[in-house]
Amino acid sequence: MAGPKFLGTDMSDPEVIPYFTWDAPLTVCAIQERLKSAPDAERFHLLGLILREARDTDVWAFTTPAIVSVNWERLKPHLGRRRAFWEWLLQSWRDGGLLG
């Protein structure tokens, strides 16, 4: 039997409920599964929530820079106040040759 699920910051623990999903508690494992198998609209909404609410270092437990870059047009409507940060970061990586 699994232990109780708890809010936390350890994105390597599949049973942790990430701090940024406190209002709709999903474990790290559940988020990763939804990002793989949910319909596109749900996947991009969830990934947008992660990009918008999680610390940028925690984002990479759920996606890659390449996935964000390739899906940018579908993600940017979900980013709110963090959109400018992600635009800057992706452009910096492209300028530096880190992203195609």
Task: Give a structural overview.
The chain has 100 residues and is mainly α. Strands 1-2 form a two-stranded parallel ribbon. Helices cover 51% and strands 6% of the residues. The protein has one domain. The radius of gyration is 14 Å and the shape is globular. It contains six helices and two strands.
Write the layout of secondary structure elements.
Blueprint (H helix, E strand, L loop, with lengths): L5 E3 L7 E3 L9 H10 L2 H14 L2 H4 L5 H6 L1 H4 L7 H13 L5
Parallel strand pairs: 1-2
Helix pairs in contact: 1-2
Provide a compact summary of the structure.
This protein has 100 residues and is mainly α. The chain has helices spanning 28-37, 40-53, 56-59, 65-70, 72-75, 83-95; strands at 6-8, 16-18.
Task: Give a quick set of tags describing it.
single chain; 100 residues; mainly alpha; two-stranded parallel sheet; 2 strands; globular
